[in-house]
Amino acid sequence: MQMDIAAQMIHYIHMKLSIVATLYCSASHNDEFYSRITQAAQNMTSDYEIVMVNDRLPDDSLDRAVRLSEIDESVIVVDLSRNFGHEKAMMTGLAHAQDNQVFLIRRT
């Protein structure tokens, strides 16, 4: 039984995490979101990515997300060609997620 607990702890320590979020008129709080989600991810694992999907809305969310990706390699930005809606944006984010644990966040 102790072996099972040890194996579970090793799995937790090496957990890979993808956090998928859409950019929906979120420019005004992108930096705060990034700061909080990064801190939360780092509390769980050192191996994580943040997938931000731009669903083509008329603010500068994309520019802000791209700037974050330029300073932090864990940030991946996916830019859709037009507004497909939240569900399609989340499915696209899931398709780009590389890790074995995925956390979806709907930002409004």
Could you estimate the helical fraction of the residues in percent?
40-55%
Task: Work out the radius of gyration.
Answer: 15 Å
Low-pLDDT runs of 5+ residues are none
Integer count of domains? 1
Question: Your description of this structure?
Answer:
- The protein is α/β, with parallel strands linked by helices and 108 residues long.
- It has one domain (16-105): Spore Coat Polysaccharide Biosynthesis Protein SpsA, Chain A (Alpha-Beta Complex), CATH 3.90.550.
- Helix content is 45%, strand content 24%.
- The protein has 4 helices and 4 strands, in the order H-E-H-E-H-E-H-E.
- A 4-stranded parallel β-sheet has the order 3-2-1-4, sandwiched between helices.
- The longest helix has 15 residues, at 30-44.
- The radius of gyration is 15 Å and the shape is globular.
Considering the chains and any ligands shown, give keywords for the structure.
108 residues, alpha/beta, Spore Coat Polysaccharide Biosynthesis Protein SpsA, Chain A, 4-stranded parallel β-sheet, 45% helix
Question: In short, what is this structure?
Answer:
The protein is of the alpha/beta class and 108 residues long. The protein contains four helices and four strands; from the N terminus they run H-E-H-E-H-E-H-E.
